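pasting for ref
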Amino acid sequence: MKFIHIADVHLGAAPDRGYPWSQKREKDIWESFHRITELCEMEELELLLIAGDFFHKQPLLRELKEAAYTLGRLTHTQVVLIAGNHDYISERSPYTDFIWPANVHMLKNKEMDSIFLEDINTEVYGLSYHAREIREPLYDRISPGCPERINILLAHGGTPDNIPFDKNTLMHSGFDYIALGHIHKPQYLAENMAYSGSLEPMDKNETGERGYIRGEIIKEEEAGNLISAFIPHAACSYHKITIPVQTGFTNGEIREKIKEMIKAKGENHIYQFHLAGKRDRDTVYDIEGLTSLGNILEIVDGTLPDYNFSALKAENEDNIIGLYIKAIEEGGFAKELGEKALYYGMEALLEAKNYK
């Protein structure tokens, strides 16, 4: 039985709200979901697992209809999904009485439930959130009922506020595969237990690859043989990049370096730049102008002016500037702390001197 495991799709989310590219990011998330279904159809996969947070919040009825239409077009693939902490089933949730296409099965109960897909000899277990937080370890005592079937647990959680679980207990619970959601970073907790991660990154802290898990389970009597792998899929990613700066660098040089990096990595991605190193004392970088070069969330100027402290101390040995340099040098500070104290203190003292 061949399957794809996705989670934390967050349909309806608009990451980086307020930035020019936010609306495109919202469309990217829907498009990533569509590409998953196209892959299922093209490869004739038997099962698509959606491990919670299919939507970013309580879905609108029109959003449910759009998603259901896309899933209902699959001609070879059964779909099983649960609601997570973001799209939990409230009293007024459209999930409650929504009728899915025949190939789509939502495990809506807040207690553990399952569905047996006879054509592929597969039973999928799971439950849906009916509140934003669930602190009880609801997965720790679950085990499959029919060992001769392919048994899969669809689970959303793993944190103190969202169905905490004991990894070792769950790993030895008898399931052939445990498809996890909630943690957006893809990771295997065991050979048969994994977070697929989100299809697309949701904010600047979600750096690294995002995608889905593709797998195959072959069941012989009561023994299951699993082969699976994480597949990168995201249309966009966040990049944190440090630009080394040297004395003599102008705004123009920084501008060209940023443009080169964006061109090399891709204009569709989103960037945070950190300028680090020494700059000329009279140089001021145009941060606002530099952020207009692409999808740039922020540019942090961490450069320090290139002071000649020996010369400054000699020139100002009888005033506060010289006394300050001497005090820091003889103060026994750690190297990094001492350097920062010198640079930032000198900025303030020289500015005050010029102001006078």
